From TrEMBL:
Gene Ontology molecular function: protein-N-terminal-alanine acetyltransferase activity
Lineage of producing organism: Bacteria, Bacillati, Bacillota, Clostridia, Eubacteriales
Top-level class of the enzyme under EC nomenclature: transferase
Protein known as: Ribosomal-protein-alanine N-acetyltransferase
E.C. number: 2.3.1.267
Source organism of the structure: Clostridium punense
CDD domains documented for this protein: NAT_SF (cd04301)
Length: 177
């Protein structure tokens, strides 16, 4: 059983529920989310339910593999995803990921959710650093990682969605918080 719940002013970070599958499918297909995270588009409810079950089965705070739903407190609705996991294309460095439904973007929710998860991860795991990769033209996402304290240290070209893609490569160290 996954026993994690993180509350912020506006959000609740918690395990995905099967009942979140429709919301996850919906936000994953929205234009901005699907453009920047084309490898995470859920095409139908069955695929979304399988994805929810898969991430919950894979949950492991020691590895860490933590992918959580972002619930908007006022709406009681799943509006996105936030997580950390080892990324094979980056020599298994632990990457932060986040996505917010298009209609909720521009309110600071990606930053709010990511900041809360980063604090939890550095406090509750042995992890000492996190990686973020962002496509250079994704200005809003670059702003989020920079607000979180990540520093751009390099550019990486890695396989993504069937092609080799250039990403800005960021690092955040727990000692810098």
């Amino acid at each position: 059983m996954i026993n994690i719940r993180i509350e912020t002013d506006n959000l609740i970070l918690r395990p995905f529920l099967v009942s979140d599958a429709k919301d996850a499918q919906y936000y994953s297909q929205q234009p901005k989310v699907s453009y920047w995270m084309s490898d995470m588009v859920l095409h139908n409810e069955s695929e979304a339910i399988s994805w929810v079950n898969w991430i919950n089965e894979k949950y492991n705070p020691k590895e860490p593999f933590i992918i959580l739903a972002i619930e908007h407190k006022a709406d009681h609705k799943c509006i996105g995803v936030v997580g950390v996991h080892a990324k094979a294309e980056l020599n298994n460095e632990v990457e932060i990921l986040y996505a917010i439904s298009d209609s909720y973007q521009g309110n600071g929710y990606a930053t709010e959710a990511s900041k809360a998860l980063i604090q939890w991860v550095f406090k509750n795991t042995e992890l000492k650093d996190l990686t973020a990769i962002v496509k250079p033209e994704n200005i809003p996402s670059k702003a989020v990682v920079e607000k979180l304290g990540f520093k751009c240290v390099d550019t990486r070209v890695i396989p993504y969605d069937g092609h080799m893609c250039k990403f800005d490569y960021y690092k955040l160290y727990s000692s810098k918080l």
